Every structure is written in C-alpha cells, then in structure tokens.
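Notebook entry, structure prediction.
Reason for the run: the old model in the group folder had no record of what sequence produced it. Starting over properly, with the input documented here first.
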Amino acid sequence: MRPPLLAFNQNGIYCEAADVYLDPWKPVDKAIISHGHADHSRYGHKKYITHHSNVPLIKHRLGEIEVSGKGWNESFTINGVKFSFHPAGHIIGSAQIRVEHQGEVWVFTGDYKTEDDGIAVPYEPVKCHTFITECTFGLPAFKWIPQDKVFEDINNWWQENRDNGQTSILFGYSLGKAQRLLKYLDTSIGQIYTHGAIENMTEVVRELVVMPPTTRITRETKKEEIKGNIVIAPPSAHGSTWIRKMVPYVTGSASGWMTFRGARRRRAIDKGFVLSDHCDWQGLLQSIKATGCEKVICTHGYSDIFSRYLREQGYDARTEETQYEGELGQLEADKEKESE
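New structure, fully documented this time:
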C-alpha cells in the first residue's frame, strides 16, 4: 500500500512525493501557503509558494521572505506532483490547494466560505477524491444570514449611535474581516477611523481592492474629531488604554461567534453582528458534496462532531489535529506590535 498523498506530522501537512508542506506550523524548507492569516502563514520557512495576490499580504506580515506567486488554476509541478491554487473565498488572496499525483487528487481548503463577499475571489468547488476541510463552525446552530442584511444592521447601529452622540467601535481582525467591514460602511453617516493595525494592513489591500477613505487614529487625533463616527479596530484593542480616547463609545463585534449571546457577554461587547469569513453548517455540507469526494479529513473547529455526521451520511470521514485556529487565528497577528 502506498503512503497517503498528504500526511499530517509534527510540522504540518506533508506531501512526501514532492517533499513540500502545506501551511506548515513549524519552519520547513518549502511551504505552499493557502492564505495570509497568522495560523496558516508562519515565519521561518526557507521558501514560500502562494497565490500572487497573497504575496504582498504575507510579505507585510513576515518581512523579506523568499516567495513566489502563482495564478488561479495555474499548474506547477514539484518532483512529479502537480499543484494548483483555486479560489477559497475566505479573504483576499485565499486559496484551496489542489494536489494531484498518479491519478489521485486531494484538495486542502485552508479556510474558506461560500458566500461571495464582493472582495475575495468567490469560492469554486474543485473535484477530488479526498477533501481536507476546516470545521470552524461545524454545528447546525451556525446558519449565516446574507451579508446585505448584516451591513444594513451595522449601518443602522452606527446611525443610532451617532444620533446619541456616541462613537461606534467595531472590532474585526486586521486582515480580511476589517476590509470586509470597511467596504460596506455607509460613509454618508460619517467618517471611518482606523486603529494602526487595521490601517497598515488596509494600505496593502488598497493595491488589490478599492476601499473607502479612512483616517488613522494617532496620538494627535482629538477625541472631538472621532465623536459620532465609526472606528474599526482589532479585537486586541478592546480594553486597552488606546480605546479611552473614544469615550463615550458603544462597542460592536462582527464574528460568527456572535451567533451565541454568551460569546458577546464574555467579550463584554455591546452589540454582536453575525458575520463570518468561514462556512456555516450548510456551506460546509454543500461544498463537500460539490467536490464529489469519497474521503473527508476534518481539521480545526468542531471536527469530531462534523466528521461523525459525515460518516452517518456515508462518507469515509476522520479528523486530524492541526495548529490552525479558525476565526481565532488572526488574533496573534493583531497583537503584533503596530504603530497607532
């Protein structure tokens, strides 16, 4: 029996035939990277390969690295193994990684979502024999509403706060979620201010996507300037001394975890908006069915529950441990030292 095309070991997801890793969590010689979040694109690899739109994002986070970019559906071969990137719809530059060798096809999703957010290239199903899927929100309780309705609620919330003389502070991860929020804010209500971590990343993203004007909050920014406007900040800013300049303010968070009221209370958030860059329960199931796969490997999230359900549906499904963190995976990057 030949070894599996992709295997999980202490360093990451390993393709022995090509001697290359997919989104490794420990330093390796050659890494193929699905997207720019900190849990999937780590520092220390000798060579990086990723989609070309992800190159500036990971270089911003990781500094001067040896990285090459590929296009969508562009095949490249390493030691006789064929690889290609396909849209994952998760964030800007996010890709599924297709691996083909000796008639066998595996697809590693990284992180993905099926709703077209108008920023990331929309998710495309890729036919395969084995599908490696995240399960961040792999419970039936997670069912997203269309983003148009979510942004209507966000803009109404901002308007109400402005009418009450309060500043709106909306938390979202600096890469992906923040730009999605910025894209759909109604600037007729007021101005958009940003935390330094958000602004630094958005400056990179502006080279790829049209974004509304924003103003960086600095030490010189006066409290009176911000009042009644909206501030986009990373979750790591909540409870910090930086936020005192915004008083009086109301806080909001945009996350899939806002499905549960308890999550909002634990995070001391005034208002929760259910908005995720990952699949909900139905999105996961529909994606798996569209691949035509026989085997499913479930990683980070509710992997045990989800894989058990898949087995009940007739799939050859199992779980594997990884160091990916789903929607929490951007927290460490947002904690990295950034100028105000």
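Summary: Residues 330-340 have pLDDT under 50 and may be disordered.
The old model has been moved to the deprecated folder.
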